[in-house]
Design brief:
By secondary structure, the protein is mostly helical. The chain has helices spanning about 25-45, 50-75, 85-100, 115-140, 145-170, and strands spanning about 10-15, 20, 110, 175. Its EC number is 2.5.1.17.
Length: about 180
């Protein structure tokens, strides 16, 4: 079987249950989720020793994002989605765990520190974009309500994990300094 089908050469693609233009908002939403999944794969290559728990989390999240992408690509009427509230609850527990490792925040911080922390901050921003895309389509098409909640928590997870990586690697968060006089 060849990887190329030529079926998308006219700018169309197939959702589950419908053929649409590749510029369709639903395609943009699940495409952004897919982009985030790929970025997590890159991030995993930089996770330092001492963060094996984070590696497990990130691989779990990759599977959940694949499920979410399937939910977003399905235009048929559904009651049961792959994305579940238990995924969000797991993220909340992990956020609390990582948040306890880092010192209290007293000001804004810049993305950076350890390479893995910088990638996790980038994951956070792509997760926020994916969340915005899901909100956009949820106003007009059936989407899982949990998708928005999950993506919101996921961006918080990445922030907390980035700070934990910096703590575990003895690097400090980079404080934001205003240029305003």
């Amino acid at each position: 079987m060849k990887i190329y089908t030529k079926s998308g050469d006219e700018g169309d693609t197939h959702l589950i249950g419908k053929k649409v233009k590749k510029s369709n908002e639903r395609v943009e939403a699940y495409g952004t989720v897919d982009e985030l999944n790929s970025l997590i794969g890159v991030t995993l290559t930089s996770i330092p020793d001492g963060c094996e728990d984070m590696k497990e989390d990130l691989q779990k999240i990759q599977h959940e994002l694949f499920d979410l992408g399937a939910d977003l690509a399905n235009v048929t009427t559904r009651e049961n989605y792959y994305i579940q509230n238990e995924f969000t609850i797991y993220l909340e527990n992990r956020i609390d765990y990582y948040w306890e490792e880092a010192p209290p925040l007293e000001q804004f911080i810049l993305p950076g520190g350890h390479t893995a922390a910088a990638y996790l901050h980038q994951c956070r921003t792509v997760a926020r974009r994916a969340e915005r895309r899901i909100v956009d389509i949820s106003e007009e098409v059936q989407t899982p309500a949990e998708a928005i909640v999950y993506m919101n928590r996921l961006s918080d997870y990445f922030f907390a994990a980035a700070r934990a990586v910096n703590v575990r690697t003895d690097l400090e968060d980079i404080p934001y300094r205003s240029n305003r006089k």
